[in-house]
Structure formats: structure tokens, C-alpha cells
Specification:
The structure is a single chain. The protein is α/β, with parallel strands linked by helices. The protein has three domains: 123 residues, Rossmann fold (3-Layer(aba) Sandwich); 61 residues, ATP-grasp fold, A domain (Dna Ligase, domain 1), CATH 3.30.1490.20; 133 residues, ATP-grasp fold, B domain (D-amino Acid Aminotransferase, Chain A, domain 1, 2-Layer Sandwich). 32% of the residues lie in helices and 19% in strands. It has a five-stranded parallel beta sheet with strand order 1-3-2-4-5, with helices on both faces. The chain is globular, with a radius of gyration of 21 Å. It starts with a helix and ends in a 5-residue tail after the last helix.
């Protein structure tokens, strides 16, 4: 409990340090943009608190009035500009497919002539791997061979030889990824609980790789990139929580234009790509592993000066200039400002 209180205090102090809230109000309902917050127990110590108020700050810096609405009755708004966060907390009824609630909300807001960010298309690509891989196939985006099934009894289930990966349909941060080496492991994985959580079974070819590249874009600009490097001889997810090293410096410039053009196909304002290469051969065509319109960036640091692995560095809460928390909040503010400027100047999402 004390750690949560400490994190809340640090988050609030840092948001106040970097924020511009002259044109932000909790009471003036006629402001140009409604920032909707559907609070959950964890909201005030979550990334969404930082993202929401950094977006409000970016709008305020542009001289745009923001009404912060905290509550459940978002359906009362019609013909308004509305921003909100990707948040599982809106699923207050506990449905297994929490994305269906988000889709319901965005669809109804649009039907009531609201101009919203994120919209239904952006929301549908959030933690929905079955839809994402179908979209990759439709758009001819190069990705590891992937089979989306409703049952292992389908003929397609035998397309991939062992070993391969199973990815859970609604998952994030390398969670819900299972390495399957044989039939016994397959049967253990696809059990009753798995089928309760997943309408679809996603099988994917196992790529021989020990690193992947996270690339975050806003519009046609790459705003952050870093390698996550697995130093083990064995395959495992490259998320920093698994002990991967991080490299913020090296970028395969040969593929910059390629990555931007692929991202344009997806019609997203912002998104994070996870990209790899077969046998870590950067001369071969990139493989797009995943994309998400909602993501947690790793702030840039000089990893040579860290005394602990990056994954451990991320766990430390602090207010200092070089603390992870401070760098993370600064990164979020920078990215949200780019997103807001893109929505206003390029996307023309809002009527201001």
C-alpha cells in the first residue's frame, strides 16, 4: 500500500512538473475537447493517468480548452470532441472479451456524432491478435506464417511443424505467448481454461531470432526505437521483464522508409511495431511481429551507466532527473504532444 501511495504522489508531482493546464477545467463543460476518465482502482497510479493529463497539457498548450469528465455516463455527450485512453477498467461487468465493451462505447459515441480518439478502428486493433493477423494478411504485410483457428480440428491446424508459438488472442507485454515443442505440450496448452479465454487459437511459425526492434510511430514519423536483445542461446520473449538487454542507438536505416510505408497501410495515428529478421539477418526483409495503437515506451537512457539490467531499472520509482519514473513521464508527455498535434494538424479528427 505504501508503495502505491508513493507512486501516486510521484506521478502527480511529475505531471504537474511537466504539464500546462491553463486551459484545463474539471467544471467548464463547454470546452472544445472532453477528456473522459473512467476511473478504476488502479487508474491514478497507472500509465493512463499520465497519458490522459499529458494529452490535456498538449491541448492546453495549443490554446484549446479541455473539460475533464470523470465518470461512467459518457453516453450523455453528443456532437463533441472526445479523447480517452485504452483501458480495461471500463469493463466493469467482467466480460472475458473486454474489447467488446470498448467497441460498444466507441461505436455508440460515433453514432451520437462525437469525434473521438481512439476511434473504433484504432480500438479494434488493441490487444486483438486474431484481427491484427487477418489485417496483416489482407494488407500483404510481411509477418511470420500465422494460422488463426477456431478449433484444432480444422485442417489448417497441421500447417506448421513443431516447434511453433501459440499466441493468446487478447494479451499484451509478451504475456500469453507459449512455445510448443510437441503434441503433448500442445494438448496441455489448449485446455478448457485457454478455450474460455480465447475464441480463436493463433499458431505462428517460430522465427530463429534473438532480438527484435520496437519502433514507435506517430503519423509518418518514427519517434522512438530500441532493440530488445535476448542474450540466451534459447528462444524466449524479448520483453525486458525476461532480462533482455536494450539498445537505443543502432537503427537499420535501410528499412526506415519500409517501416513507415507499412505503418501507413494500417491507418493509425500512432502505433508500436515489433519487428524482427529471420536469423537476425538485417539484409532480409523485416518481419512484422505485431502492432499496437497503445503501448508502453521504454525511455531512452545510457544503458552503459546502469548498475542493474534495464528490466530492474524500470521497477524503481523515483523523482530524480535520471530516474526511470521521471524519464518515462517525460517520454509520455513528448509523445502525447506529437499525437495531439497530429490529430489537429494532419488527421483533422477534431472540429475546433
Amino acid at each position: 500500500m505504501l508503495k502505491k501511495i508513493f507512486k501516486l504522489i510521484i506521478n502527480v508531482l511529475l505531471v504537474l512538473r511537466y504539464g500546462h493546464f491553463k486551459n484545463v477545467s474539471f467544471f467548464k463543460k463547454d470546452q472544445s475537447v472532453v477528456l473522459w476518465i473512467c476511473p478504476s482502482r488502479r487508474y491514478w497510479i497507472s500509465d493512463n493517468f499520465i497519458k490522459d493529463f499529458s494529452a490535456a497539457s498538449a491541448l492546453s498548450k495549443r490554446g484549446i480548452g479541455v473539460y475533464v469528465y470523470i465518470g461512467d455516463k459518457i453516453g450523455r455527450f453528443e456532437g463533441r470532441n472526445i479523447m480517452f485512453s485504452f483501458d480495461r477498467g471500463v469493463n466493469k461487468f467482467g466480460f472475458k472479451n473486454y474489447l467488446s465493451i470498448q467497441h460498444y462505447i466507441t461505436s455508440n459515441l460515433s453514432n451520437q456524432r462525437n469525434r473521438i480518439y481512439p476511434n473504433s478502428h484504432e480500438m479494434n486493433l488493441w490487444e486483438n491478435k486474431a484481427l491484427m493477423h487477418r489485417m496483416f494478411e489482407e494488407l500483404n504485410i510481411n509477418t511470420p506464417k500465422t494460422v488463426v483457428l477456431e478449433s484444432l480440428n480444422e485442417p489448417n491446424s497441421r500447417q506448421l511443424p513443431f516447434p511453433f508459438l501459440i499466441k493468446e488472442e487478447h494479451s499484451f507485454s509478451s504475456q500469453g505467448i507459449h512455445l510448443i515443442n510437441n503434441k503433448e505440450q500442445l494438448d496441455q496448452c489448449i485446455n478448457e481454461k485457454f478455450l474460455e479465454r480465447n475464441k480463436h487459437i493463433i499458431l505462428q511459425k517460430l522465427i530463429n531470432m534473438r532480438r527484435d526492434l520496437r519502433v514507435i510511430l506517430v503519423g509518418d514519423e518514427i519517434v522512438l526505437h530500441y532493440w530488445r536483445i535476448n542474450k540466451s542461446k534459447d528462444w524466449k520473449p524479448t520483453a525486458t521483464g525476461y532480462g533482455s538487454e536494450v539498445d537505443f542507438v543502432m537503427f537499420p536505416e535501410k528499412w526506415r522508409h519500409y517501416i513507415i510505408e507499412v505503418f501507413k497501410k494500417l491507418n493509425l495515428v500512432t502505433g508500436a511495431f515489433d519487428i524482427t529478421w529471420e536469423n537476425d539477418d538485417l539484409e532480409s526483409e523485416p518481419l512484422i511481429l505485431e502492432v499496437s495503437p497503445n503501448y508502453q515506451p521504454n525511455p531512452v537512457v545510457d544503458v552503459s551507466k546502469l548498475k542493474v539490467p534495464y528490466g530492474e531499472f524500470k521497477k524503481k520509482i523515483g523523482f530524480g532527473k535520471n530516474s526511470y519514473t521521471n524519464l518515462f513521464v517525460k517520454t509520455i508527455f513528448s509523445q502525447q504532444e506529437k499525437i495531439v498535434n497530429y490529430l489537429i494538424d494532419v488527421d483533422n479528427r477534431f472540429k475546433l
